[in-house]
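Board notes (copied after class):
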Amino acid sequence: MIEYKIVSFYKFFNIKFPEILKNIILKEFKKNSILGTLILSQEGINGMLSGKEQNLYNIINFLIQNFNLKMQDFKSLNSSKKPFHRLRIKIKDEIISLGKPKSSNPNKNVGKYLQPHEWNALLEMEDVILIDTRNYYETSIGTFKNSIIPNMSNFKDFPKFVDSLSEYKNKNIAMFCTGGIRCEKASSYMIEQGFKNVFHLKGGIINYLRQIKEKISKWQGECFVFDNRVTVKHDLSPGAYKMCHACNEPLSLSDIKSPKFKEGVYCHKCFGKLNKKQIERLSERQKQMDLAKKRGKVHLGV
């Protein structure tokens, strides 16, 4: 079985000219046949990449030598599924958007980082407000016990959710997300809004699952990831979920058995919401993907 290497990382630090850095990075990534997504902004860098082990090692060294990154900023794992089929480097106003670029600055203020073993200890304490900062479709798959679920469709909804927490400004606030970037950004925003005791899980859920044994884990369910694996189990192996190519919602095994599911075209969550042209386009894409698979190739419509 082929094993694919994946590296994820992010770092908040000031970048004056991300447009110039994009061309430098793109050249190095192409030379090493790197696939995945990298986001650059004036507030930092955020990436999830895949490639051959030696090539990824070259890229990690390149980023450490040329940017404000350290070895501990990189999280790596293996996957039996090819996680990416193309390379995308984007320049954005924020590496993770709250929709209010000037209302938070992780390069200035962030909450207190907690390592996974410290996180378990905090969750044992009373009077802790535990907040899942991820989107609703992620939280529906798995979360920490007793978490408050904001029911957001986008991270930009988080400031509105914070408005409902004014009575908790002196409480212990503990936040988490998939890899740490959203809860770090969220902690900066909450400090700016006057919250006093803000904590966030260092390295996010993925780091927690890597370090904490399942028998003492406080995590329940699977974890959604933003690549072709869709979800991962507690041991970080690919989970049981698939992705609907029409609405981008994760689907369980029971969802796939629904009569309202058609591979690559629609699921029970978007059934009846697509027009004729959309169904025809998605059906044709799925047809081309199936043909490419028979030829042993990958269709980039994935």
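Comment from the instructor: The chain has a mean pLDDT of 91. The longest strand covers residues 4-12.
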